[in-house]
Amino acid sequence: MMKKIKLGILGGGEESLIGILHRVAANMFDQYEIVGGVFDSEHSRSVDFGNKLQLDKSRIYRDLDHLVEAEMKLPENERMQVISVLTPNFLHFPMSKQLLENGFHVICEKPLTTTLEEAKTLEKIQQEKGSIFGVTYTYTGYPMVRQMKTMIQNGEIGSIQKVDVQYYQGWINPLIHDKEKRSTTWRLDPEKSGISCCIGDIGTHAFNMAEYVTGLKIQEILADLNYLYEDNPMDIDGTVLLRFSEKTKGVLRASQIATGEENNFTVKIYGDKGGLKWEQENPNYLYLLKEGQALQVLKPGHPYNSEFSLEGTKLPPGHPEGIFDSMGNIYFGIARAIRKEKGFEGAFPKLSEGVRGMNFIEKTVESHKQGNTWVKL
Amino acid sequence: MMKKIKLGILGGGEESLIGILHRVAANMFDQYEIVGGVFDSEHSRSVDFGNKLQLDKSRIYRDLDHLVEAEMKLPENERMQVISVLTPNFLHFPMSKQLLENGFHVICEKPLTTTLEEAKTLEKIQQEKGSIFGVTYTYTGYPMVRQMKTMIQNGEIGSIQKVDVQYYQGWINPLIHDKEKRSTTWRLDPEKSGISCCIGDIGTHAFNMAEYVTGLKIQEILADLNYLYEDNPMDIDGTVLLRFSEKTKGVLRASQIATGEENNFTVKIYGDKGGLKWEQENPNYLYLLKEGQALQVLKPGHPYNSEFSLEGTKLPPGHPEGIFDSMGNIYFGIARAIRKEKGFEGAFPKLSEGVRGMNFIEKTVESHKQGNTWVKL
Amino acid sequence: MMKKIKLGILGGGEESLIGILHRVAANMFDQYEIVGGVFDSEHSRSVDFGNKLQLDKSRIYRDLDHLVEAEMKLPENERMQVISVLTPNFLHFPMSKQLLENGFHVICEKPLTTTLEEAKTLEKIQQEKGSIFGVTYTYTGYPMVRQMKTMIQNGEIGSIQKVDVQYYQGWINPLIHDKEKRSTTWRLDPEKSGISCCIGDIGTHAFNMAEYVTGLKIQEILADLNYLYEDNPMDIDGTVLLRFSEKTKGVLRASQIATGEENNFTVKIYGDKGGLKWEQENPNYLYLLKEGQALQVLKPGHPYNSEFSLEGTKLPPGHPEGIFDSMGNIYFGIARAIRKEKGFEGAFPKLSEGVRGMNFIEKTVESHKQGNTWVKL
Amino acid sequence: MMKKIKLGILGGGEESLIGILHRVAANMFDQYEIVGGVFDSEHSRSVDFGNKLQLDKSRIYRDLDHLVEAEMKLPENERMQVISVLTPNFLHFPMSKQLLENGFHVICEKPLTTTLEEAKTLEKIQQEKGSIFGVTYTYTGYPMVRQMKTMIQNGEIGSIQKVDVQYYQGWINPLIHDKEKRSTTWRLDPEKSGISCCIGDIGTHAFNMAEYVTGLKIQEILADLNYLYEDNPMDIDGTVLLRFSEKTKGVLRASQIATGEENNFTVKIYGDKGGLKWEQENPNYLYLLKEGQALQVLKPGHPYNSEFSLEGTKLPPGHPEGIFDSMGNIYFGIARAIRKEKGFEGAFPKLSEGVRGMNFIEKTVESHKQGNTWVKL
């Protein structure tokens, strides 16, 4: 009989916004058993939280060092197999590195690291160790994103000629115009968040999505960023021209000063045989545009969807899937990989995608700083 | 420290559509620990499924009798506290009854029973025992439904003058026109499903929702049902005129032959100070209509929502909630009640609502059979 | 060479809301020349308005008697051929009658008359005279309503099994709760508006549309109206159960106290092969639902639409049609009929539809007053 | 008494797509009387068309020279006052020039000319003559675009920090991939269409709209265009980075190879106090985003709209306005200007806007050809 995969978690405690997302996702398909972790840098809070989850006290660790040491002493069939890294951005790298080096599989929040250098280091270790490493570009798990990917792969919209991705939020607006606030927000502090705010946090989602659904690689970019204030070291808005090939062009728009926007992430792909459009805030609709035909709206759970899409749909049509489902699908994909089962291609975002994301962030800032010139990825 | 509530499940095994919904919901807020149950009438399948969930084998029971007997022998702090009944409709009553009589709390799928008589019997026992009994009218758990309820309660749209609820599906269309199929579908078999198909299955959701969000009670109804074929004993479509009071009228429309519809459940409430509208297939939008003002679209997670609504929202605005979240909120409400904590009024649908639902079903069929006349509820 | 049709107008002057709608519609396809009329009961205002339209002063008449007398003296090729009646409801009948009796074609706003009796009288005269008589159920002129009609006629959604029409407005809410206002509003005065307000004004649109798009006739109805106050003699809200045949049922909902609603007129038709949905406030989208297929959204101007629909579309896809276009199409249909050209069936609403509308209004009130019983149409 | 303005038309005959748009618009507010013109380069067709409009034969001219000569001989109060130029792009300049030189007011379709040079020439003559000159950037006439302009002007969304305009169509897709077709389409022939296809035809609308609603001027641009094939001399897709000021940035996206798109023109403006969004294909909704508040959807005809917006709304809320209404409003604005009445600022697009549009087109192509560098406007 198949045993659940033993999962540890770093971060994601009481104050965390995303802890619940990962826990629900891990539980969704009955693939994982959360066995312990370090939920908070403050040990007592970590313990309280672990207790709430009813975990064995002995596996609520003081810090990662203690976790690694103790877990390595356990017999292999009791040991944590995979560990989710939900800590602040700057800790993604050292923690993931330590985990990889000790043979754990890793699930890491994005952005993967704070520099491309670090990302490459992780990739090198991972390749040596042969570990599974998932990066939670959450939105790729939605059934209709998977359907879009399959349809493009199957030639449904022909050869891609135009790619348009947008990720608009407004949450930085109330901070950025206040000198005090903008100097104290951790997202705007390069020490904690790397060299980019808007592109690093959300632009990278849009970049990944553009490559994910099209199956194409972006070759070159030209970026124009906005910092709004001279004393603000981090971009909070930007437009990036994308070149996939001589003919296939695109544009990526990201903003955290699109006042009033929540999480307005949209994807539009146009080929010579049709177009496909999707919006994250209304994730259960996939729009198919074909010349001379009525607009088609595809929805999850129908047999006309691909097997890959259907695998990620839990209930019959008309029962809205949400963000939890999307992350649940990604965790499921990782579980299969850990179990060495054959899963769908694209079932979870890989470390290499995280590396490409870091490369994109660095090159975007480079292009902007050079005066908005083309830079090869 | 707070312990998780020990949950047993009846039904919901491998073949079940709704098993995953209840398990995800139970896990969502870290309130429950699934400890065992009877997942399938076929014991070996039940055991396989319990193993998959990594449950203690000794608590995967052959049937409900065994479960009750064994659990009652356990010390109280190890015993199942609450049991979810996800079995076919006609088993809801005997199982719930046995559970109540043995002191368990119960979570039961709707329709509660197959007759009003049975429902009243359950209510009587529950009142004697003082048990918690939740009926999973799932859709009442959505954050924006809760927001609608609070706003109406707070007088935001004034005195209610018009109620309009619709629940349209199309799934029976491909069955009903085929003599063979319509005679073998269990939903169309009164033995298994009670006296009504469409009203019993979905009309009752709409009825409950109309009373839930308005806080009003429907006094009288006049129903017109459609059976389409003389050899079909069960309604598959119907319209019900609703009278809340002399002045406050409404209409409930339900159909399973609205070809092509998925789960198109909508609620519109109009008062003398404004209107509120909500659609289940797009559950994160609540429309507020006020004379002389722009249409307002409220969304989950914003501070302008009520505490009751916000309690059921797990992530920041822009991260779509789905049906899992809705059921998760209901399980959370039940958990609080079991812990004797003070929760929000309306945090989960009560047994009395299930009883009213059964009454509605019977009276609807009665009104129709009498030639579409008014019947008091 | 084809001459424009000479058009006279009664009402529709400076204060009129609908005058501009009729004038724009008449001009749209270059079929009519407005030559004169009686624009206002106050002659000087009528003259001022006629001057503004740059009409020949001699054809701006004091009243209908003068108009008829003077026009009849003109040579036939100069005489007004058709006259649009845009006056208050209670004048529709006497004016239309006088016009028909004198050999004019007539375009009349709805409701056609204030009683069924009057409507039948008009019909009798019209049949004797062989005149063209259009009733402006404006919404039937939209390209996508025409498309819906053609598709149903062609069997696209199979045999109709469910009809659902809604017409919700909120404009009476601010009047009805004020005793003074509700006693002085002309729409609530039976002398001026006939026996019904809500059903007469908008329910009749919904009734006509239900029959128009399905090509079916409603056989029986059962109505429940709402008057809200005892001193209010006119319905302001109502639900009407519709029976097209033993199997084909439907429901019509109309309200003027759906607070905050503007002109929310929707049509849903379900057959055994699919469903079609349309909304007046977003008139350029027609939704086609087919089992096992993606939802289809048809839009005006595409070659996949019927000739009938395309005739009423003036610009390429993506250029929104509005209410003016809808009325323009109806005027065009009437022009063709006047010229004795063969036009599309359903190109304009006929007098017989107006008569059916009046019958519906009377029977609806009758059903309600009898205690919500079935009444044959 | 006010006389109608005498209007002549060049082009817009039987084969024209836009002739009907201009005629309906001219008639809408009863401000113009169409008296003659040159409707087709083939005189007999022109005469036939003029006859259909029932125009005086003597004023259906052989060509512009004849028109000018004959009209100049008429007494001033009978002479055409304003002439609409609806001919192919390359004729806009010579015809407008001749008209201006002879003292006519002009309404000209966009693009104004084929070169910036020509545009400036027109502007010079117009300034000397003091003529009224309207350029039909049609979409600025929609009531909700006007409302957006007023709200921004009134500071409703504060200081603008992000501008995003999109104009996506797909109509060139079926032509561009066919060598034969792409070499014979007039829009892709620089001789007939100037130096740009996509930017010239639709990008210029988006450019104008961005400046129109914000009241700001774009200072610099950086463009990346797509031609897809080496033998195609004209852009068919492009993205243009916009700089309004150091801080206020934006992006303009235009495409004619967004396969399946119809006329998907959208405008999003974000300031430090809120955001506003509008979509041409659904022109009656204006979205207002404010931090911490429900999304607001403004619609035409409500008293909360500005006077400027309300002036362009002909019917009560809930009666959809379409593209005809938008053009009608522009014609009305021009009529007022011709009558020397004080109208609303922005009531019609001026020649200076057409000049800026031509400048934008030339600079966009220049930026692209220079290797995607910043160019000052």
Automatic annotation (TrEMBL), chains A, B, C, D:
SUPFAM superfamilies in alphabetical order: Glyceraldehyde-3-phosphate dehydrogenase-like, C-terminal domain, NAD(P)-binding Rossmann-fold domains
Entry-linked Gene3D superfamilies: Dihydrodipicolinate Reductase, domain 2 (3.30.360.10), NAD(P)-binding Rossmann-like Domain (3.40.50.720)
InterPro entries assigned to the protein according to its UniProt record, in alphabetical order: Gfo/Idh/MocA-like_OxRdtase_N (IPR000683), Gfo/Idh/MocA_oxidoreduct (IPR051317), GFO_IDH_MocA-like_dom (IPR055170), NAD(P)-bd_dom_sf (IPR036291)
Family annotation (Pfam families): GFO_IDH_MocA (PF01408), GFO_IDH_MocA_C3 (PF22725)
Domain GFO/IDH/MocA-like oxidoreductase: 145-276
Domain Gfo/Idh/MocA-like oxidoreductase N-terminal: 19-137
GO molecular function terms noted in the UniProt entry: nucleotide binding
Top-rank taxon, per record: Bacteria
Name the record gives this protein: Gfo/Idh/MocA family oxidoreductase
Protein source organism: Christiangramia oceanisediminis
